[in-house]
Specification:
globular, six-stranded antiparallel β-sheet, mainly beta, 3 helices, eight-stranded antiparallel β-sheet, about 240 residues, about 40% strand, Double-stranded beta-helix
Length: about 240
């Protein structure tokens, strides 16, 4: 048989984590290092591989209900190769080290089982009040696979410069960065998007590190906006987004 499809056969590599193509992740399992993946993200596998729902503690369940942030994971174990994907999103590998990674859980595809995750409040961690925005902090040493809607932009934050990012477009950032959350600069109230521009919350990053931004704010139809004045002014947009 001949076909252009043969250009898409699996990559031959000794690496444990490989981006098979921009929207598909390949993970090799060797029997002693499990991988935690987003539930339902397996699209194919080879070998003797088992999939089990990952245990969620009562504390984690409570944090998920209270914040809306958290991971629904399955444990992949055994000997073989697993292919992971989700809604044809672009996949990116990140080496997590002592610096740590802060990310919206909606953008996590998979991670090494040795990594530790914890839900944090951006406001309480950095002294910012009134935002109520929660994120997932990933610490330890290992790899994590993130997803973006489209090709992302990685911005460098240095001591001389800081970066402002739309809160609906940011995917992840170095945990060591200092963060400030801000909304409108006029007094018409935080629920109205800035001056009729459609812009809302922003995150300002200071320090040394990186910020990952995607070219999408996940507005409707991926995240349906409410009707009436709430929808007009952006309230509730990007709620229950495409990866939940």
């Amino acid at each position: 048989m001949q076909s252009p499809l043969f250009a898409y056969t699996e990559q031959q590599t000794q690496e444990r984590w490989t981006v098979q193509n921009p929207q598909l992740l390949r993970v090799a399992l060797h029997g002693h290092e499990d991988v935690l993946a987003r539930k339902g993200a397996m699209v194919a596998y080879q070998g003797l591989v088992e999939f089990d729902g990952e245990y969620v503690s009562p504390g984690q369940r409570h944090a998920r209900r209270r914040t809306g942030e958290g991971l629904d994971l399955m444990r992949c174990s055994g000997q073989g190769t697993v292919y992971l994907a989700n809604l044809a999103q672009y996949t990116h590998l990140v080496d997590v080290d002592h610096e740590g990674l802060t990310v919206d859980s909606a953008y996590v595809l998979a991670l090494d089982s040795a990594l530790h995750t914890e839900v944090i409040a951006v406001d309480s961690q950095f002294g910012i009040s009134g935002s109520g925005k929660y994120q997932l902090n990933i610490t330890g040493r290992g790899k994590a696979a993130l997803m973006t809607s489209g090709q992302p932009l990685l911005l460098q934050v240095t001591g001389e410069t800081y970066v402002n990012v739309d809160a609906d477009a940011v995917v992840a950032w170095s945990s060591g960065l200092r963060v400030q959350m801000q909304a409108q600069t006029h007094s018409s109230g935080v629920w109205r998007r800035r001056g009729g521009t459609g812009e809302g919350w922003e995150l300002s990053f200071l320090g040394q590190g990186q910020v990952l931004v995607q070219p999408s704010e996940l507005l409707p139809p991926q995240g349906a906006a409410p009707s009436g004045p709430a929808g007009q002014y952006g309230v509730g947009q990007n709620q229950g987004n495409a990866w939940q």
